Amino acid sequence: MSNPVYGKQAHTSTRDEKRSPLFWVLIVGIMLFFVWSPFQAALFNGQMLDFEKPIYWALTITSILLILVILSYYKKFKLEEQRDWLAVLVILLPVTYALSLISAASHYLAMNMVIVQCVYASMFITSLYLLQDRLGNKMIQIIIMTVAYLIVGFGFINWFGQWILAGKLVDWFSSAVYQNRYTSAVMTDSNGLRLTSVFQYANTYAAFLMAFLFASIFSLMKSKTWFGRLTHGFMLVPILVSLFLTLSRGGLVMLPVVFVILLLFFKSARQLLWIIYCVVAGIVSLAVLSPITNMGLELNQTYNGATAAKGWGLLIAAAAISGVISWLIQQYVAPKLENGMQGWASRKLSNLWLPVGSVVIVGVVAFLLIGTSLRNVLPENIRVRVEGINFQQHSVLERFQFYEDASKLIADYPIIGAGGGGWATLYEKYQDYPYTSRQAHNFFMQYLVEVGILGFIIFMAFILFVFYKYTRGYIQQNAEERDSYFLYFILTLSILLHSILDFNLSYVFMGMLVFVGLGGMAAAMDSRPVKRLTLNPGAFRPLYSGVIGIVAIVLVFTGLRFIQSSNAATEARQVARTSQSFDQIQVAVNEDLSIRPTHPDSLLLLSSLYQAAYKQSQNEQFYTADEELLQRGLEAEPYNKSMYSYLMSHYQLKNGNEKAFEILQSKISNYKWDISWYSNLIQQAFTLGIQAREQGDIAKQQQYFEAGLNAYQQVLDGIAHINDLPDSIILTRQFNLTPEIALNTGKIQFMSNKFAEAVVILQPLLNEDLSNATNKEIARYYVAATQKQGQVDHIWYDKLIQADANEKQQIDDLVALKLQ
């Protein structure tokens, strides 16, 4: 039986080994990067101009860090073990995203995801080598935990209404601060105020808090110093209170799941301590949760310094109590438990009893908080959220629908996927009912959409292999070796499990935590020799270093160029708001388009310039340039609704209504729940039908009218489908029969000699407010249709005449029309 080599490389550096200056440069660089990145809205990949520049900076910075790793750890590059191959295989992750560019639904969004994956791969390689160094591992863990605690503190500054202070603390380096306020650090939705801290999204903050709640408990248990134990015990209450203040049901659901899974990795004494610390923190947090919640709700409406000070005092006092109790337990109780339970721990399956018991306890607590009056200990806003935890509530049913719709999308892009941003670009085409969600709310499903089965298999094989080898090695090692890297396992597992329910990894900062965690797990895994695939280090080192070094340098310059492009696009948008100078705006736009020729924001801005210039000058050069620009853009962004809208406006500059109508009709399947698309199509069908009638082309008139009526029937079918949905489904987009749709459809029926049908369509939309032009026209065609049938509605006829005497002549003109 071969000897395990788990953790071997993690101990290659000793306490006395001298480290090069590059090591310290790397540590300082990572520290500054981890302090900077969360305050850029956690590097949210928001798929729009406002969010992109910090991600390009992240690419530049991580590529520089990767270069430092190559220079610092050149001698460690070899392919002797499984761990070494991971540094090669991780490159396949951005490669699969690059491959998906072939079938990408949006080249712009797909390229951004290639960049994000390059950031992840760089962080993994950096972590893999740096965390094999004892001191490097220790310092990275300190940096991660410190940054996490800063984020929690930042959240409370905003919760207690001190958002000006919060903004001033970070506005000198954060892109998320607007008018001295960090945007949406406390967000408002239908549930009221929700704490989000740096994330601007409560559910992802809940995932972050869940991960670091367990990370704090583990750090408390392994800490050897009184200061460390006190600090981690102190932070349990702020983290747990923050978790409640997010009002995240997904966070509360996943918390016990991760809690029980992590218990399985401890011996009985630590399992009991794990539970005790959770109970202590939970009791203390619940004791102060209601007043802190109410103070925050009050302070975010009207700030009061005394109330804020009281809130801080209460929070700090509760945290101090938790910290002191936790320190006392770890100092005096923990050693006795570990010694006293050694015999129990040696029994077979002894570590399963507490996890199984915890499942029962969690179930009982959940029942008490949801199904009994014990829930009254919770603040009202939190109680309402907790009571809503069930499989029939809106957010659960909506997520299931997302997954079903994503499955239909995957079926059309099965092998290499629809590219980065594929869901955001295509979901309107596949959605079963009208909702708005540019995220699939499931990281794994969204990953499968973007890179297809091939990319998904590579990704899952990569992370499952790391988890398997880490767990295998964890079982074989002693307590000290286990403790050295278990923090990375906690963070990675927690975030990935919660990402089954939400889009946490759309925040690149969260993704970096996962890949740093995977790197830490790989640094400590049970790494076996790979003899058949081993290359001579003398040949591999220069090859690997050269390839990765060149790629890193290319990425640095790519990041800088994209930053330059983003700056130009932002400047162009700002200039367009304040200046009417064609040349001034065009210079900024062209600077962006010279780097990214199909960047949607700048392309659409330039198109609007060309169209405005053509309207003023009738210069054909502007018209031609605009058409070429939009056609080029649609080649890269074939599902971009705004580009199609601009192209339709372009055609209409020369009365090209027929071409515009072709777009409306041919692309309706891409936006089948966009009621404005149907409205435009039906309106254009009527207009073009009337033009054809005036030209004597009755066949063409009928063709347009039939297209309009078909669209109207699709609207009715859609409304019927919506009416069959469960009552708990809440539509986030309206899809109903608008007055404009009814009017134009009624007019089509009227002009088709189908007066009874026109009456049926128009009558339900009659409105007493006849000062409104649409309402007046509906009533006019309705009255005319009744007259055509010989059954004039005198009530509405009199109302119309009373509202506008000219209506009599208009009604007479309609009645006098000779229709075929």
UniProtKB/TrEMBL annotation:
Pfam families: Wzy_C. GO terms for molecular function: ligase activity. Keywords: Ligase, Membrane, Transmembrane, Transmembrane helix. InterPro entries: O-antigen_ligase-rel_domated, TPR-like_helical_dom_sf, WaaL-like. The keyword Lipid metabolism does not apply. This is O-antigen ligase family protein. It is a multi-pass membrane protein. The chain crosses the membrane at residues 21-43, 55-74, 86-108, 114-131, 143-165, 202-221, 233-266, 272-292, 312-332, 352-374, 409-427, 447-471, 483-501, 507-524, 544-563. Its main location: membrane. Residues 344-460 form the O-antigen ligase-related domain. The keyword Ligase applies. It is found in: Membrane.
